[in-house]
Design goal:
Number of domains: 1
Number of helices: 7
Largest sheet: 4 strands, mixed
Shape: globular
Strand order of the largest sheet: 1-4-2-3
Structural class: alpha+beta
Order of helices and strands: EHHHHEEHEHH
Helix content: 25-40%
Length: 140
């Protein structure tokens, strides 16, 4: 097992895209279907959140889909865990929603991520922990 930290900016891990999708698939991401993404003009330019439109979001995912299909590596996504008082919640994508959705759409098995949160969650996301051994913060 590799050493893990509990802060964002940790060493990079190759996480299993399917496992992250099981515990984190927001309502917006559900609407970013492959058909809608591929119809949108690709958007390579980053925009601040207050300048984005739903069409830009789809195009941004399309841009990352094209990069992945061209076998280019993307910047790592950033994953952390929610904290509810003294209890830990499941992991969520802090940065990289468009890259994560693109990885799901092209059926990438793994994606680079900087992971914060509990070591047990990180171990489950990377596959160091068996699928059926979900830690309590993920199973709820």
């Amino acid at each position: 097992m590799s050493a893990k930290t509990i802060s964002i900016g940790s060493p990079l891990d190759l996480i299993l895209v399917g496992r992250l999708r099981e515990v984190y698939w927001g309502s917006v991401a559900q609407s970013w279907t492959e058909a809608r993404v591929r119809c949108a003009p690709p958007q390579s330019a980053y925009l601040d959140v207050d300048q984005r439109t739903p069409e830009w979001d789809l195009g941004r995912v399309h841009h990352f889909v094209q990069l992945l299909e061209a076998r280019q590596e993307l910047d790592p996504i950033v994953i952390d865990s929610r904290v509810y008082g003294l209890s830990w919640g499941p992991p969520f994508v802090w940065d990289g929603h468009h890259r994560f959705v693109a990885a799901v759409l092209v059926r990438r098995r793994r994606i680079l991520a900087s992971c914060g949160g509990l070591v047990t969650s990180i171990e489950w996301l990377t596959g160091e922990r068996r699928r059926d051994r979900r830690p309590p913060e993920i199973t709820g």
